[in-house]
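Invent a record, attention on tokens:
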Amino acid sequence: MLIANALIFAVVAVAHTFFTQVSVPGLTPARMAGAAAAIVFLLCAVSAWKTNHLRATAAVFLITMFAAILFTALMNGGLPAPTSIFLIVAPLTVGVLSNWRWGLISLVAVLISVLGLHWAASSGVASASPHSAGEQNLLKLSATLLSAVAVFISMFGYEVVMRRAVGRADRLNEKLQKATQELNQQIALKTDAQAALQKRNEELERSKSFLSTVLNSVQDGIVACDHDGQLTLFNDAAREFHGVDVRELPPEAWAAAYDLFSEDGETLLRPDDIPLRKAFAGETVDRQEIVIAPRNLPERRVICRAAPLFDSHGAKIGAVATMHDVSVERAQAEEMRRQRNELELIFDNVPVRIWLKDDKNTILRLNKPAAAAMGVPLKQAAGASAYDLFPTMAKKYHDDDLAVIRSGEPNLGIIERFETANGSHSWISTDKVPYTDEKTGEQFVFVAASDITPMMEKAEKLRQLNGELENFARVASHDLQEPLRKLLIFSDFLEQDLGDDLPERAKKDLEAITSASKRMHGLVKDILELARMTGDIAPMEPVDPVKIIRSVMQDFAPRCKAIHAVLVYDDLPEVMAEPRLLRQVYHNLIGNALKFVRTDQIPRIHFTANEIDNQIVLGVKDNGIGVGADHFDKIFQPLQRLHGRNKYDGAGIGLAICKKAMDSMSGRIWVESNLDAGAHFRFSLAKAEETAVARAPSGVS
């Protein structure tokens, strides 16, 4: 717009200067001013075209124009026609080029200039116009027409320029919108790409974190190198094995830096023997055993696996190796081997025959003593049938095995003959224990047998000796009692024959002979009874102690009545005993309780019973003279007397018989007592399966 106005003003200046003033001869100041104005306008157009600085060009335009107008007006009578043309158009141009404020300021300046120039023309300050009145009118008319034309052209040019500007702006706007859309699309694509990249980065980070967590949670050590053979990865287990982290070292320094030794634990690995180095060279390593022995950490024996790594295109990108710590496993295996050897050593050298049999009477395994007893090699006996090895006894053995397997309970201490196929025989004590495999349900029996042939032979000899001793005791007692009986008989005859003729001293001697003979008779009888008790285990059966006590008390009824003895009973349960032996125990204990009484008290006998550790402890408790603690063991020995015969009769064998009887019933007898405080003789027996409550009423009788 500035360029158009400048050009219009230049054309108007030329037209008005050189065509409307044709009648004016010479180079007048007006023509000089018009030419100068045209030149100024042309310079303004060129400045606007070249610099495109609208406000700077408008400022130059206004300053130049006002300077030219003032100069021309003052030289041509105040306000010539060209001046009025430019003053009218100037505010419009300034308003368009700058803004309405500058246009308003320019209009005020024009009004002030017009008024000033009119004053200058009327007061004579301005130079006289060289034109006549007709020429001035003509100039004013031409100036008016040219002003109208200039305004019209400016308006038309402005409209054209505006239309073009609008069209150009529309086109630019379309291009801008299109460019904006393309830019938005590119921004959207870039945003999507950035989001996708961010997502991939996050997924990559998660994958790296997951992989790191997985690697560090693995108990095996994991190491890796890149395509250049540089170590890049140690997981936590590998760092723990070596005590150090990844370091940039050449493969030649790996063995020394990470304490890698061969299987012997002493030879440092050669670089070419390191599993990861082998894998990097293209070799796949499987189960190579090495030793990691850092100076400040425990030595580890590891099994290594290693393999090269390739990308999707087949290019090698490195190698990886894993290390499984087998130190504990090897130590455990060595310990198990040692224990197995010890067990094998014990199994084959224990002086007991041991074998394992199934329910079909097949010997699955046995030790050397068992094979030696069978008279066959160890390998031949394993897997053989008992019917082939023990043809005579196999059926009994099998029946015993099946009974143990079915009951699920061990059968211990079986005394039986051991006869093999080669005809040898012996005696054994056998223990059989059932066993069931939880996985397969198969049933077996462990058998342990001890050779008791020497013991059985000694027992047989002992039985023979006991039989001989019993025969001897019987004969001896008969031979000893025969003179005693004759001595007693003839003493009676002598007393009857002489009667009152016997001197007093002879009577006392005869009474002494009779008393000694009776004591001798009782002693021989007790010794015979003690000799008859061989010590063998007696056959046991459930026995009611109350019945035994009542039977014994019938023998002592007169004595109890004479001394007014009081009897007290606890609830006495049934026990496993041999009735005859239990009666003998009660007979001797009750007899002692009625014998060793205190003269200042009524005799009291208390029959006690307690249960201790599944054993029934029976007892006979009295309030007699008691026994000192230093005699507790002595009184159970034969012929041990604590008191003289003149005070208490007896041979001192009764308690020895009680102990022998309890030994035969696998029981125990002891005494609890204090002097002058009574004695409590107690003895233990096995509890009967069905315990019976005593038939006698509890309390005193």
Remarks:
- The CA atoms of residues 216 and 260 lie 21 Å apart.
- The two ends are 154 Å apart (CA to CA).
- The chain has a mean pLDDT of 76.
- The first helix runs from residue 2 to 18.
